Amino acid sequence: MRTSRRSDVDPFIVMDVMEAARAAEAAGRHIIHMEVGQPGTGAPQAATRALAAAMEEGPLGYTVALGLPALRARIAQLYGEWYDLDLNPDRVIVTSGASGGFILAFNALFDSGDRVGIGAPGYPSYRQILTGLGLTPVDLPTSADNRYQPVPGDFHGLDLQGLLVASPANPTGTMLDHTAMSDLIGAAHGAGASFISDEIYHGIEYEAKAVSALNVSDDVYVINSFSKYFSMTGWRIGWMVVPEDHVRVVERLAQNMFICPPHASQVTALAAMDATEELEANLDVYRANRALMLEGLPQAGFDKIAPPDGAFYVYADVSDLTNDSRAFAAEILDKAGVAVTPGLDFDPIRGHQTLRFSYARTTEDIAEGLRRLKEFMAPR
Q1: Residue 37: per-residue pLDDT
Q2: pTM for the full predicted model
Q3: Closest CA relative to residue 161, chosen from 122, 205, 128, 113
Q4: Which residues touch 165 (CB under 8 Å, ≥6 apart)?
Q5: Which of 62, 141, 263, 349 has its Cα between 20 and 30 A from that of 184?
Q6: Which residues contact 184 (CB under 8 A, 6 or more apart)?
Q7: Structural contact between residues 282 and 355, judged by C-beta atoms closer than 8 angstroms
Q8: Measured between alpha carbons, how far is 75 from 81 in angstroms, rounded to an integer?
């Protein structure tokens, strides 16, 4: 049986690293996980208790396609709390994770063959989802001078129908300030391109609050998730905010593609949004881990790093150590027992010479991982 050309997408390399780490653990080794962007914590306790209570009350079935009205209203309230915005809850669409949001956004905004600019390095699934939908991802090689974020000059004259940015970014953790966000939105709109802002790491910031694209314009798509700050990766629940005249467009797509987001995850997410004390305690762990990484990685020999303003990643230039980041990551896993992600996941051209380190796990794990990395790098 034939397969489609659209299905010819690259693997998500970090998942391959996770599998190699799992196999090593199954063989009896103790592996420190710095490869995956997954909090070491679970959903807030109050949230799981709320779900247990809801399940006692009766069965959980379909919800409306846009999500539970109470959850949409609470998400809109968050924009007042975090960004001082008065957001109409009607513009909020609950999705099956941020991934579901990207699928809905790309289908709502673009036609087959349309060109969508994405920063490189950047989250690899942008490229693969676009390809799988018959769209054309256009890598925009970013520079260290611009903190690995795109600037208008990176896509001038490229005939894009869309621009997708992330702040804080994966894999670098760098952020766009208000001026930089405004410049990108203005340049995209000036070129007739739709603007999508990936804001799934909002809430995980250290020295300054992340700027939402909605602080600049209502004529944008914003995608967010409960996976990171709210520590709910496996629940597959997220949201998007769209212009008012796009709500029905996305609703029709959501009805047919997903029916609705998981009801249980929506109940849990609603309660998680008020678990501030527990969530901020998680953030304190990331803050401590970040300090350890910024001190320990240079001591181990990984001293060319992007400034991580948010998220829980450090992106390192290892061009003085290797031209094959995938083989280098495999060697680190084999000899040091530390799983890290090759940069090829994020930048297919320059990623041969970069690595991403995640510090989302416990502080004890991060300290042990850094100790192992120093020991591994000592002979070099």
Answers
A1: 87
A2: 0.95
A3: 113
A4: 119, 149, 150, 176, 181, 184, 195, 196, 197, 198
A5: 349
A6: 150, 151, 152, 163, 165, 176, 195
A7: no
A8: 10
